[in-house]
TrEMBL record:
Protein name: phenylalanine--tRNA ligase
Gene behind this protein: HaOG214881
Record field: catalytic activity: tRNA(Phe) + L-phenylalanine + ATP = L-phenylalanyl-tRNA(Phe) + AMP + diphosphate + H(+)
Top EC class for this record: ligase
Any Pfam family the entry gives: tRNA-synt_2d
Length: 442
């Protein structure tokens, strides 16, 4: 049986080479990824553990629930949109996850001070290169290539907390649908996509505004409302294909830097509202910068893990990475639309160990980056780390020293862990934390 986690038999020095006392990634000469060398710098924070997930492509692996959901979504768009007997949407599901900051942020109008750019949220290879944080990072390059309707599917990477619903690698489906005037308003030459003040021949001369919550200043209200109606209709159709016609849903106004207006779709799942996707009308500046200046487009993005866990009642996101036949055979050769409820292969107990430490003088309970700690815990402990929770913050009233306490929950998905082996791994994590961040274990 293939193990779900990487045993901690490699030297801690190999792990600690990625950290230094400032809780930022250590600047080393270069990072090797799939035979290619990237010069590292003060932004480098990608870890060996994270790099080990590259190329796994769970969304393309037969019998994986992520692949089943992916295929159901693709089938919906293939059947719903055709042109002269051929699918209107093209599919891109094997794009490299290594992108530039320009692709991931600048091309999408994400401001330089936006919180999604910070090192604590992204896995940077260096200041100019990172592992994509969303599939939308490929939107502009595909638009520049002349595409108008396409799905982008793949793995994305974000630094986050550790629990049963969060993992540093997950999978997204993003889509763009563009339309020209004659497609949007067939047989209605009096209707326009753009306001009279917008010149499609000189689009860069127009300063587009999103001050109006109803539309972008370059678009007519008629064009925006028709695209909104199409977008919501198509996504409600997809939701009903996945969850059934009786599913309750609602739209919530949202904000994304790259769309306006924007919405989130929520479904009523297990007695509470759950967000399943974000969407909106693509900012016209993105279309103009990519080449097309006479179209209007909508876009959306959704996470495959969230959908698969809801559809198949999968309780732990780590199970998506399992190679255990007891898990995979439950999804083997099934009808894509079959109603499948995951049955636990086994139920193994948790082991919980707390870790308390004094921070060095240059750090406080508010400036210490928990995501740096989470990455180090995951690097040492592997995928038997089920959850890490910040349990307590403490400032000594006399010495003014700052202390943090984290609870680390261990659980193997395929066998029972002994407290002795958990204690050994816990000690290795303690040593790594001391060496990396200059803390003192309490």
């Amino acid at each position: 049986m293939t193990k779900l986690f990487l045993k901690t038999n490699r030297t801690l020095s190999a792990i600690l080479s990625n950290y230094k006392y400032s809780t930022a990634a250590k600047s080393v000469a270069a990072v090797q990824i799939k035979g290619k060398e990237f010069i590292s710098d003060d932004y480098t924070n990608v870890t060996p553990k994270i790099l080990s997930y590259l190329g796994k492509n769970l969304h393309l692996q037969k019998n994986n629930p992520l692949s089943i959901v992916r295929q159901r979504i693709v089938n919906y768009f293939y059947s719903s949109f055709t042109h002269r007997g051929h699918p209107s949407f093209s599919i891109y599901d094997n794009l490299s996850p290594i992108v530039t900051t320009k692709q991931n942020f600048d091309d999408l109008l994400i401001p330089s001070d936006h919180p999604s750019r910070v090192k604590s949220d992204c896995y940077y290879i260096n200041r100019d290169t990172l592992l994509r944080a969303h599939m939308t990072a490929h939107q502009s390059e595909l638009l520049r290539s002349g595409l108008d309707n396409f799905l982008m599917i793949g793995d994305v990477y974000r630094r986050d907390e550790i629990d049963s619903t969060h993992f540093p690698v997950f999978h997204q489906v993003d889509a763009v649908r563009s339309q020209r005037k004659e497609e949007l308003f067939p047989g209605k030459p009096d209707l326009e996509i753009f306001e009279p003040s917008f010149d499609v021949n000189n689009p860069h001369m127009f300063i587009n505004s999103i001050d109006d919550p109803m539309k972008q200043s370059c678009h007519t209200l008629e064009a925006t409302k028709l695209m909104e109606t199409q977008l919501k209709s198509h996504l409600i159709g997809l939701t009903k294909v996945l969850f059934g016609d009786s599913i309750k849903y609602r739209w919530v106004d949202a904000y994304f830097p790259f769309t306006h207006p924007s919405w989130e779709l929520e479904i009523y799942y297990e007695n509470k509202w759950m967000e399943v996707l974000g969407c909106g009308i693509v900012r016209n500046e993105i279309l103009v910068n990519a080449g097309p200046s006479n179209t209007i487009a909508y876009a959306f993005g959704l996470g495959l893990e969230r959908l698969a866990m809801a559809l198949y009642k999968i309780p732990d996101i780590r199970l998506m990475w399992s190679t255990d036949t007891g898990f995979l055979t439950q999804f083997e050769n099934i009808d894509l639309n079959a109603s499948v409820t995951y049955k636990p292969v086994s139920s193994y107990p948790q082991c919980t160990n707390d870790m308390s430490f004094w921070l060095p003088p240059n750090l406080t309970v508010d400036t210490f980056m928990s995501n740096d700690f989470y990455d180090l815990v995951r690097d040492v402990g592997g995928d038997i780390i089920e959850q890490v929770k910040l349990k307590d913050k403490f400032v000594h009233p006399k010495s003014k020293k700052h202390s943090l306490c984290y609870s680390i929950i261990y659980r193997h998905l395929e066998r029972t862990l002994t407290q002795a082996e958990v204690n050994q791994i816990h000690k290795e994590i303690e040593k790594a934390v001391v060496d990396a961040f200059g803390v003192a274990i309490r």
